[in-house]
Amino acid sequence: MKHFFTFILFASFVLRAQSDSSGVDFYEMSLEDLLNVKVSVASAGELTSRESPGIVTLITQEEIKNSGARDLMELLSFVPGVSFHQDVQGSVGIGMRGNWGHEGKILMILDGQELNENLYSTLNFGNHYDLSSIKQIEIIRGPGSSTYGGYAELGVIKITTYSAEEINGLELGATYGQYDKSYARRNVSLSMGKKFNDFSVVYHGFLGQGNRSQDEYSDFYGDSISLVNGLKANPFVSNLGMSYKNLSARFVYDYYENITPIWFDELLPEPLKIRYRNVFGELKYQWKVSEKVSLVPRLAYTNQLPWSNEPTEEAVEFKLQAARITPSVIANFQFSPSVSLMAGGEYFHDVAKNFAEETSPYFDNGTDYISYDNMAVFSQLNVRHKWFNTILGGRYNHHSVFGPSLVPRIGITKIINKFHTKLLYSYAYRSPSIENIVSNEDIIPENTR
Fold it and tell me: Residues 6 or more apart from 165 whose CB is under 8 A from it?
């Protein structure tokens, strides 16, 4: 690995071996056309950003390429109301509209896979995801719980990567960044895709090493340390998608190593490796029942080992595995060109296992194993009228520990020539995650209106 990265020193390139892409040239579009680009992050189907029942930001592939951003965190920092800050153990989390959302209040989705880990429902940013493979990003700056559930209280980030047809070949890339005292980042990426009649396959891979800073860091007790080669972010992300006619599958392996001298409110004598390992799998079928009715059954599985570390004199070993299986089905009804309905249901079965001998038994039941069940039903009615468009929806969720949650929403939108207006009202909730429940079995969801 050392020799491999030595090979790409001082290199920053993208090598493409592909035929003509089918991507849209957004720079050739008029302002009116750009405002009418379809988005789906805030609704059951595709609507224009002006009609969408949410405050939605769309970042296109051309904007990504021309932003100068080297990392997803830098790119999202351009979005109004989005900010990033350091949390515990050197992790970097996200906030939205002045509210801190690191612990499960902002949901991020990559090609249909929910990336939040299920112990504390956090996300980790900083040299983590490859920008060159991303086609577009849709962002809700506001509640999304009625559609996406309990990790979408403050916002949703939906990332879509390039498809097999859009790549139609092979893409290789490498980036290198330099501080004056050490390297900033050294990453490589690979994307390849091909369609063969009814079958298509696409793959995106990302491997790297990053130094987050070379500044001096001081803790609450006045101790200081230089962060040169002491605060690292090392990712490996593997994203495989396959489809045959209406059947599709997605497999994502996300490994992230955070090497940090920062514990909670104090410095450690030696940097500690905090590891996050996430495996996501999905099998989905799009069934066209008739011209007006379609069904989408889906089976998803996640297996995660987040925040894990080996034992040291200062840190107790943490090795808690979380797994979730999620069968779901969504039905879409197109009653007329102006009236449509989406309705669906999903079931979560969550399991947590403790593998750290130091803290065994981990749970209050006297074992190293615990499980929870969660079910949800949701619907959304879209009505287009010459005076205004109306969207009515909601989600009912019932958890085996903290019980029911109900989040209704209403959206009224109107376009008049170059002006548009939106009236939005919604409930949202932050669903307690596994470690929240372990700490307090009387916990209830956090509600936002």
Answer: 22, 193, 195, 200
> Can you tell me the distance from the alpha carbon of 113 to that of 158, in angstroms, rounded to the nearest whole number?
9
Region for residue 127 given its phi and psi (left: phi exceeds 0; alpha: psi -120 to 50; beta: otherwise): left
Tell me how far CA of residue 324 lies from CA of 88, 140, 212, 249, in angstroms: 25, 25, 32, 17
Do the Cβ atoms of 89 and 258 come closer than 8 Å?
Answer: yes
Q: Vertex 183, ends 180 and 189: CA angle to 5°?
A: 145
Q: Which residue has the tokens 């970097």?
A: 92
Residue 256 Cα distances to 81, 302, 372, 406, angstroms: 26, 16, 27, 35
Rounded to an integer, what distance in angstroms lies between the CA atom of residue 174 and that of residue 244? Answer: 32
Burial 2-11 (b: 16+ CB within 10 A, else e): eeebeeeeee
Q: Give per-residue pLDDT as tens, 132-161.
A: 999 999 998 888 888 888 899 999 999 999
Single pTM value for the model: 0.88
354: its two tokens: 């403790």
Is the Cβ–Cβ distance between 326 and 350 less than 8 Å? no
pLDDT in tens, 72-86: 999 999 999 999 999
